[in-house]
Amino acid sequence: MQQWTDRDDYWVNLSEEYGVDEWEDDYVPYVFDLGKDSNGDVRALSWQTTPGGIYYRRSIAEKVLGTDDPAKVGEMLSTWDGMFEVGEKLKAEGYALFPDEGAIRWFAKGEDPQPWVNEDNELKMTDAKKEYMDKAKDLRENGYTALADEWSPEWLEGMDGPIGGKTEVFSYVLPTWGLSAILKANTEATVGDWAVTNGPNPYFWGGTWLGVYQGSENKDLAFKFVEMMTHDEEFLTDWVNEYGDVVSYLPVTEKVKGDISDEFLDGQNHYEFFLEEAESIDASSITKYDQEIDQLFGNEVKEYRDGKKTKEEAIEDFYNAVKNAYPDIETP
């Protein structure tokens, strides 16, 4: 996001041109903050908030954990030790905790939320990120996952039944949009057998921001579209009712959050859960480098997980990959 907000030649300064600073209290804080440039001026707005959780199968939870209640299951998954204990119980009954080890990366990022690159242009490898490498390897070696890499056909298959007719997956780590765009789009047999709860810490995944292009010949008209999509109460209320999207515009969320009930989640009000998670999200650790550095790090985590490299080799190769991609960044 920051690679766009800090480009003076790309997005119009909405603070100066349209006075949108006055709208700040109308939004989930981290969402409004992510639309600002490094000077604190708003360049883009979003109608969404995209905190994440753990979507899990109620029938499996009832059988293995003795309850399908989201609060009780969330308590079991609220620590890393608790998560691995649940993994052991599931394994004993023939189930996989997650489809793949990458599922836990979001919790690892949220455990100690520091930017990949600090103000001195230095790459910062936190202890939490190093520990994530070990946790991912432990998940693999303990047999707590279904070996179905994210976005693969097997990963999708596990949402609606056993992968390859063998391994049933207990849960998926996904954000708000994962409900409608992924789970609902890839299930038939398991509809109504899902719920959503927390993991060890809050996180968010993705989102869509709208701005006005500097080169537009119809800037005022473009802004009216941005305003409709992000700050029109009637439109956003209809949007929620039609798509179930969790919006960032608080006048609407306050009005609708108590009445949401999703049959796919057996009647659970996921809106209240996600809005509570969103309150704890801090966007200050986000940088313009995140997408590529996350991918470079994920590649090396897989190499370590699969036993192709030692932890030290994987970390060193990660530093070299970052240096190749961004020569100006100082690596350890």
Question: What is the topology?
Answer:
Layout: H1 2-5, H2 14-18, H3 29-34, E1 52-57, H4 58-65, H5 70-76, H6 80-92, E2 95-96, H7 105-111, H8 127-141, H9 153-157, E3 168-169, E4 171-175, H10 176-183, E5 194-197, H11 219-231, H12 233-243, H13 250-256, H14 270-278, H15 290-305, H16 311-325
Parallel strand pairs: 2-3
Antiparallel strand pairs: 1-4, 1-5
Short synopsis of the structure:
The chain has helices at 2-5, 14-18, 29-34, 58-65, 70-76, 80-92, 105-111, 127-141, 153-157, 176-183, 219-231, 233-243, 250-256, 270-278, 290-305, 311-325; strands spanning 52-57, 95-96, 168-169, 171-175, 194-197.
Overview of this protein structure:
By secondary structure, the chain is mostly helical. Among the domains are: 2-49 and 205-262 and 269-281, 3-Layer(aba) Sandwich (D-Maltodextrin-Binding Protein, domain 2); 52-100 and 145-203. The protein has 16 helices and five strands. The chain has a three-stranded antiparallel β-sheet. The chain has a two-stranded parallel ribbon with strand order 2-3. The longest helix has 16 residues, at 290-305.
